[in-house]
């Protein structure tokens, strides 16, 4: 059942490309803003590049996750979805994994413009950077999908989503910035091991909490 | 109209706790020793730490009320959750006010991203969102479920936030109260007394807020 739901999410997106396209364009606009606000000064950029990258990802994730849940409101599709005889935890899992896939696709497309526009050197350990980025995406989307599930059917959902999400996701953003900063600086694994553990903890805890709570949150 | 203080037990506790709190303030000002480097600034810790304890206790109650609301499907647990969230936020605000008051003379500036204060600030912001959800969320029954879920998520996030903020700024010193148990009895005894009185006051305040919320709900239902 989980795979059917995931397939539905991916089909809807690959037909419309609404989520990934809006994430990509918004991400590019943020890069442009960062470039203008920092005058593309190598000193400023080198210090703040990891933070800038993850702030961009967070903003883009909000857009993506909001769109991913809000199209379910059209024709009251979400009510039909939750009235189906399925484990509602799977709805959370499918939103989480599909959100993770869309966010990763967006990053793959945007990573070169990010480094080139801001004139930053690529990290010396690209595979490590990619692996950790995937884990961080997973952690961000676990929290974002759960919070979006809560905010989606509330009034003013577009306002409530970032207000609730940003403080909750702050440990992941701190960890993400530290990990990326360490990798860019070429620090050994032992220096950023603790941050990776924090990211993994978020994935496990919010994955379990989201799976368990989603059934109650979506009750009618 | 059945007011809270019409109840004999409530009235008795109210008088008792008020007297204890007056004694506590007098005791902190008059009887506790001056810490040489901190002078009067240190006395704020007899309010600051108990406020933080009560604030976190209150958010723990919000989580328990949220879990019970989902299990029992009883609106009474939503009342408990809302009352505890309100009180927790009031005490957290007190922590965020008293912390910088202490820090200004001791650290030379009101805010230096100390891990516990930062965790408190993040939690405070989450609960501002919680109240916005309660106020602007729309559908009443759904909002109760969302609030219960948010109370659980917020408390689950607390240790992760604390650990991440602690490692984020390892160079920043912690409060001197880390080794509270090793403080001389002249400080420890009044501190524990203050902690106990704040906890009793919290229990009474929680009872009162639940009472008021239920009256409000009854009036809303009648209208």
Quick overview of this protein structure:
Chain A has one domain.
What do you see in this structure?
The complex is a heterodimer of chains A (220) and B (223). By secondary structure, chain A is mostly helical. Chain A has one domain (2-217). Helix content of chain A is 85%, strand content 0%. Chain A contains 8 helices and no strands. Chain A has helices at 2-16, 18-38, 42-70, 77-83, 88-117, 126-151, 157-185, 189-217. In chain A, α1 crosses α5, α5 crosses α6 and α6 (126-151) packs antiparallel against α7 (157-185). Chain A is globular. The model of chain A has no long low-confidence stretch (mean pLDDT 89). Chain B has 223 residues and is an all-alpha fold. Chain B has one domain (4-24, 46-173, 182-222). Helices cover 78% and strands 0% of the residues of chain B. Chain B contains 6 helices and no strands. Chain B has helices spanning 8-30, 45-72, 75-107, 115-136, 140-168, 185-222. Chain B is globular and about 60 Å long. Chain B starts with 7 loop residues before the first helix and ends with a helix. The mean pLDDT of chain B is 89. The chains are: A mainly alpha (220), B mainly alpha (223). The interface between A and B is medium-sized, with 32 and 33 residues.
């Amino acid at each position: 059942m989980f795979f059917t739901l995931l397939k539905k999410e991916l089909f809807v997106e690959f037909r419309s490309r609404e989520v990934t396209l809006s994430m990509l364009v918004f991400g590019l606009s943020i890069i442009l803003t960062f470039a203008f606000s920092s005058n593309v000064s190598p000193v400023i950029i080198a210090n703040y590049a990891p933070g800038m990258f993850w702030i961009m990802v967070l903003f883009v994730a909000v857009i993506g996750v909001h769109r991913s849940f809000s199209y379910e409101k059209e024709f009251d599709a979400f009510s039909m979805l939750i009235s189906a005889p399925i484990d509602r935890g799977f709805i959370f899992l499918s939103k989480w994994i599909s959100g993770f896939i869309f966010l990763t696709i967006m990053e793959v497309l945007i990573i070169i413009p990010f480094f080139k526009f801001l004139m930053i050197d690529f990290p010396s350990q690209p595979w490590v950077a990619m692996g950790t980025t995937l884990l961080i995406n997973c952690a961000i989307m676990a929290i974002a999908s759960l919070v979006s599930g809560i905010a989606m059917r509330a009034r003013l959902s577009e306002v409530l989503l970032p207000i609730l999400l940003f403080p909750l996701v702050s440990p992941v953003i701190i960890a993400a910035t530290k990990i990326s900063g360490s990798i860019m600086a070429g620090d050994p694994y032992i220096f950023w091991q603790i941050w990776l553990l924090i990211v993994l903890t978020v994935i496990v805890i919010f994955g379990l909490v989201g799976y368990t709570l989603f059934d109650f949150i979506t009750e009618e | 109209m059945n007011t809270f203080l019409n109840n004999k037990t409530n009235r008795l506790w109210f008088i008792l706790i008020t007297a204890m709190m007056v004694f506590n303030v007098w005791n902190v000002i008059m009887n506790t020793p001056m810490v040489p480097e901190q002078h009067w600034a240190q006395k704020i810790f007899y309010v600051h730490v108990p406020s933080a304890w009560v604030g976190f206790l209150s958010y723990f109650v919000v989580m328990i009320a949220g879990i019970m609301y989902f299990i029992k499907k009883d609106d009474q647990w939503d009342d408990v959750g809302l009352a505890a969230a309100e009180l927790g936020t009031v005490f957290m605000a007190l922590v965020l006010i008293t912390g910088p008051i202490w820090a200004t003379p001791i650290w030379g500036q009101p805010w230096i991203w100390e891990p516990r204060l930062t965790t408190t600030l993040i939690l405070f912001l989450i609960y501002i969102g919680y109240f916005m959800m309660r106020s602007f969320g729309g559908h009443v029954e759904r909002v109760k479920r969302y609030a219960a879920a948010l109370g659980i998520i917020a408390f689950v996030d607390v240790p992760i936030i604390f650990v991440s903020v602690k490692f984020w700024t390892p160079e920043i010193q912690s409060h001197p109260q880390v080794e509270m148990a090793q403080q001389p009895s002249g400080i420890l005894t009044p501190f524990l007394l203050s902690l106990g009185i704040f906890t009793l006051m919290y229990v009474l305040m929680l009872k009162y807020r639940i009472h008021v919320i239920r009256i409000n709900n009854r009036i809303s239902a009648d209208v």
